[in-house]
Amino acid sequence: MMKNPKKSNRRFSKSIIFSLVFLVLGFIMAYSFSLSQAEKNKSGYTGGAFFEQEERFRGQLIEQQERNKDLRAELEEKQAAVQKYEQSFSDGPDRFSDYADEAESLRRYVGALPVEGDGLKVTLQDGEYDGNSENPNDYIVHESHVFQVINELYISGAQAISVNGQRIDGNSYIVCTGPVITVDGVQYPAPFTIEAIGKSDVLESSMKLSGGVMDQLLNDNIIVTLDMGQKISMPAMLSES
């Protein structure tokens, strides 16, 4: 049998049309996909970037929470200090005398007031030089030795201290220059007399502690003399007398 040429032409035409339709659809889909990828790359908002940004925000949040915690603790500490200060006022007039005594004690400490009382006198002298020693400085009183005595006396409760009659305060400086020491710009030769007003028995006991200041001074060949139970007077720092 012979095939009908008209039917064959129709099938061929349909095939061409379908092929063109699918080709156009495929082109449109590919173009749309490429556009969406370009938009994502353009904005830089990829999946990896999103999670990275999320982690950064989370870290900043944790850091801020820790900072808030520290500030809260600091606030509580300040509130406790204010409450304690207010409580001191609520104690009434009975505390005023204590405040006055404390203020006077501080004035004596900084040398703003003349002072007088029992205390301890510590005298430091250069040791006798041994001709066999290579260094004569090993037998001389240095500023470090004077500072050792002053610090020990303050720790033991001394209210006021002087060196060779000159009051010492928190800003005083002592420098050793050969056989003399300079106290706040004034030079003094040996021996050096350090006087302290306070409980003389306590001051002496602290100096004589085993392995304490006096033992260290003797090991450095310094001659140390302690004289307790004396009445000691010291002028104010600004006094001209």
Please tell me about this protein's structure.
- This protein has 241 residues and is of the alpha+beta class.
- Among the domains are: 58-91; 115-231, Protein of unknown function DUF881 (Alpha-Beta Plaits).
- It is 52% helix and 20% strand.
- It is built from six helices and eight strands.
- The protein has a five-stranded antiparallel sheet with strand order 3-2-7-1-8. It has a three-stranded antiparallel sheet with strand order 4-5-6, with helices on one face.
- The protein is elongated.
- The N and C termini lie far apart (151 Å).
- Keywords: Coiled coil, RNA-binding.
- InterPro entries: DUF881.
The shape, in one word, is: elongated
CATH class descriptor of the domain at 115-231: Alpha Beta
> Unreliable stretches, pLDDT < 50, 5 or more residues?
none
What is the correct CATH architecture of the domain at 115-231? 2-Layer Sandwich
